[in-house]
Automatic annotation (TrEMBL):
Species lineage: Bacteria, Pseudomonadati, Bacteroidota, Sphingobacteriia, Sphingobacteriales
Coiled coil: none
Entry superkingdom: Bacteria
Pfam families according to UniProt: Aldedh
Alphabetical UniProt keywords: NAD, Oxidoreductase
Active site: E261
Record EC number: 1.2.1.3
Protein's name according to its UniProt entry: aldehyde dehydrogenase (NAD(+))
Membership in a protein family: Belongs to the aldehyde dehydrogenase family.
């Protein structure tokens, strides 16, 4: 793979540092982006300095006054153009995602499809930013609410969905009348530059200020500038719980608003009536897809003792079919981990599983030899554990699947599934209506996403995406997630010649 194949994304060398005519600048320290697939240098990017950050925010401030004045359906038209350009670039951008991040090409395409879908959703939304009308308690008064743009929205994203998570935030924020400043993961800067080039071109074609969509590149320090910045009323951050706690505290200290989408520890409950074939497909894709690096990846299977051995054997069989290798080769199911640090975390987790009493059914190792030169390819692991082990309580971003046995009724399984600090995604495999409904009830799963007879990953953009507890409580993407990108205003209008006071108060002058 080389960048020439992706020339339409305009990632030429000259483009990777200084201003590209769009609102991002870099002259700071150099970030080299190596592909985890073959360890080759894809490109070097210069990070954004503090002075450049200031310039970017000032541009964004100027742009926000223009953008919020454009009617929402007209803003939707710009997002429609973004969706169309993404359709045209689906293969190239999907390839870049696959090459820079390491997920399979199919998943890279899937990620760009999510971007297209959220653009479509946002276009419709641009005519539906509804507020309610209320009946006033006072005669001759009208009361209603409106949603107004917030201003600048900061978007901090992780490496695992290097383009889609930006788009969930960007498409909604833009139709809501906000301008956006994006800090992508420094592990996938080229994906971010490609997206920035796409949107910058659309803004230019429409004679709109480039500050409507900006990019700042760098490490956690740049994230901190955004979190501290009083000019940024909303910070949407996706990543680890550790990062989220820092962002949340910093934003809260200035009473800003944050939207957090953090770690998961997602489980599938496998009940005695589960369809075994569906369970295996759902669990294997959930655990091994994206090499276990989705926040919705399946980490735990909570299996009833009566079918435990059968599920275990089927899984081990299925895992033997998994082909690991170059993610751009469609015969492979699983690509590499993002980098060597991730490989080390995987190895540390394996050690801890053993130390804490786990039984590893499929041993993990780092693959060597032809095609695996990057040192980032690992084998997927299945381990029998107990839910309370420290290592099981944590999210390890790697293809490690924990098997946990439950006995008695489904309440015991639900208790185990909820007994972790995270609360993102969950699922139950059952053909028993009572179990399914209990799982979805207030006594059931405590997660933001609860599924029946599908796995934990692969959420559609139409639903609100996010989770509870240490997952951070934020909701992105579909349903009414847009409301967090706007400020709500209640308006009361008196169309009489009297001034009656609310609550019947008399105030005679
Ligand atoms: C993430 O891992 O940050 O549900 C997002 C899914 C995808 C999104 C995952 N639609 O797996």
């Amino acid at each position: 793979m080389n960048l020439k194949e992706l020339s339409s994304l305009k990632l030429s060398e000259s483009n990777l540092g200084s201003s590209t005519g769009s609102n991002w600048f870099g002259s700071g320290s150099k970030i080299d982006s190596y592909s985890p697939t073959d360890d080759k240098l894809i490109g070097s990017v210069l990070s954004t300095t503090r002075e450049e950050y200031e310039k970017v925010i000032q541009e964004a401030e100027r742009a926000k006054a223009i953008w919020r004045d454009i009617p929402a359906p007209k803003r939707g038209e710009i997002v429609r153009q973004l969706g169309n350009k993404l359709r045209a670039e689906k293969e190239t951008l999907g390839k870049l995602v696959s090459y820079e991040m390491g997920k399979s090409y199919q998943e890279g395409l899937g990620e760009v499809q999510e971007m297209i879908d959220i653009c479509d959703f946002a276009v419709g939304l641009s005519r539906q930013l509804y507020g309610l009308t209320m009946h006033s308690e006072r005669p001759g008064h009208r009361m209603y609410e409106q949603y107004h743009p917030l201003g600048i929205v900061g978007i901090i994203t992780a490496f695992n969905f290097p383009v889609a998570v930006w788009s969930w935030n960007a498409a909604l924020a833009l139709v809501c009348g906000d301008v956006i400043v994006w800090k992508p993961s420094e592990k996938t800067p080229l994906c971010a530059i490609a997206c920035q080039n796409i949107i910058a071109e659309i803004l230019k074609e429409n004679n709109l200020p480039e500050g409507i969509s900006s990019l700042v590149i760098g490490d956690a320090e740049v994230g901190k500038w955004i979190a501290e910045d009083e000019r940024i009323p909303l910070v949407s951050a996706t990543g680890s719980t550790r990062m989220g706690k820092q962002v949340a505290a910093t934003v809260a200290a200035r009473l800003g608003r944050s939207l957090l989408e953090l770690g998961g520890n997602n489980a599938i409950i496998v009940t005695p009536s589960a369809d075994l074939k569906m369970t295996v497909i759902g669990a294997v894709f959930g655990a091994v897809g994206t090499a276990g690096q989705r926040c919705t990846s399946t980490r735990r299977l909570i299996i009833h003792e009566s079918i435990y051995d059968k599920v275990k054997e089927s899984l081990v069989e299925a895992y033997k079919q998994i082909k690991i290798g170059d993610p751009l080769d469609s015969k492979n199911h699983m690509g590499p981990l993002i980098d060597k640090a991730a490989v080390q975390m995987y190895l540390d987790a394996l050690k801890k599983i053993k130390e804490q009493g786990g039984n590893i059914l499929l041993e993990g190792k780092v693959l060597e030899g032809e095609g695996y030169e990057s040192g980032c390819y690992v084998t997927p692991v299945i381990a029998e554990v107990e839910n309370h082990y420290d290592i099981v309580q944590q999210e390890t971003f790697a293809p490690i699947l924990y098997l946990i046995k439950y006995s008695g009724d489904v309440n015991n399984a639900i208790a185990l599934q909820n007994d972790v600090k995270q609360g993102l995604s969950s699922a139950i495999m059952t053909t028993n209506l009572r179990e399914a409904e209990l799982f979805l009830s207030h006594n059931g799963s405590d997660c933001g996403i609860a599924n029946v007879n599908i796995g934990t990953s692969g959420a559609e953009i139409g639903g609100a995406f996010g989770g509870e507890k240490e997952t951070g409580g934020g909701r992105e993407s579909g349903s009414d997630a847009w409301k967090v990108y706007m400020r709500r205003q209640t308006n009361t209008i008196n169309y009489t010649t009297n001034l009656p006071l609310a609550q019947g108060i008399q105030f005679n002058l």
